[in-house]
Amino acid sequence: MKHSGFDIAFLHPRYWLLWLGLGLLWLLTQLPYRALLVLGRALGLLMFCGAAKRRHIVTRNLELCFPELTSAQRKALVRDNFISMGIAFFEMAMSWWWPQKRLRRLLKVKGLEHLQAAQEQGQGVILMAIHFTTLEIGAALLGQRHTIDGMYRAHKNPVFDYVQRRGRERHNTDSQAIEREDVRGMLKVLRQGRAIWYAPDQDYGPKLSLFVPLFGIPAATVTATSKFAKLGRAQVIPMKQTRLPKGQGYLIELEPPLIDFPGESDEADCLRLNQWIEQAIREQPEQYLWAHRRFKTRPEGEAKLY
Predict the structure, then answer these.
(1) Taking a C-beta distance cutoff of 8 angstroms, is the pair 291, 85 a contact?
(2) What are the φ/ψ torsions at residue 109 (nearest 5 degrees)?
(3) Within a domain: residue 11?
(4) Is 55 part of any domain?
(5) Is position 216 within any domain?
(6) Does the pLDDT value for residue 268 go beyond 50?
(7) Residue 78 in contact with residue 59, Cβ under 8 Å?
(8) What's the domain count of the chain?
(9) Is residue 132 part of a domain?
(10) Could you point out which of 4, 14, 60, 140 has its C-alpha 20 to 30 Å from the C-alpha of 107?
């Protein structure tokens, strides 16, 4: 990965407010970890009270996926989910700016041997991740234990993109950022025996997707995981990250590689992935990114859900 270079244009007055905000965030990030958790909780509660549109999306997703919950239980889960998003804001800053030694103290990891075994065999690995709110810090922590590449989408604001990429690059000095649309680039790194972070759990539209159940709802699910595994001759290793309670840090879990994957059909593969994704979400629903409209794309003739 080529390091992002500083551009003198970043000093233009139109970016001053952003630089000021980033500077204040850097200062706050120097606080103790437990203090940042408190600040994140307060930010999450503020968003819960003020972000009506996002609150509606989260609530609607939970209505669809957890119909068995009472109204009070669902409201409490929505609140907890916003708290998790607020904490994630400071976790992002921690992953960008904390000294690596300080970050490492928060890491617990299980199953790293599965990734190491594949790499020793020279086989590429798709780290099948999920969009939990801890994804930024999870990738940073794992990157300190093993080189991983990642799918990347440039931010529209060049200053924010510069800061974000520098923050991510420092954990993986020899890693590669693959543009999300660069299929050839992804297959190339897989065939080189590298590991790449990939999350197939969001709605990317009807193109190259199949409708298979997720929480009992037909969900547009990309078939790319199967195709990348086949064409890249790669293993698929499921990956989860969890924010542990009471400020104990983070647990990253790497499961054994999927057996007989790809399988008989794209539909069977997508169903298998969605079943694993659903199980993983049910383990910590408050930490999932419910603010995404996962069921936006509907089968032809079906009513919109949002």
Answers:
(1) yes
(2) -135, 140
(3) no
(4) yes
(5) yes
(6) yes
(7) yes
(8) 1
(9) yes
(10) 4
C-alpha 181/C-alpha 156 separation (Å) is 16
For 4-54, write each residue's pLDDT tens digit.
Answer: 588 999 999 999 999 999 999 999 999 999 999 999 999 999 999 999 999
Among residues 208, 254, 257, 250, the alpha carbon closest in space to that of 234 is found at 257
pLDDT of residue 173: 67
CA pair distance 200, 216, nearest whole angstrom? 18
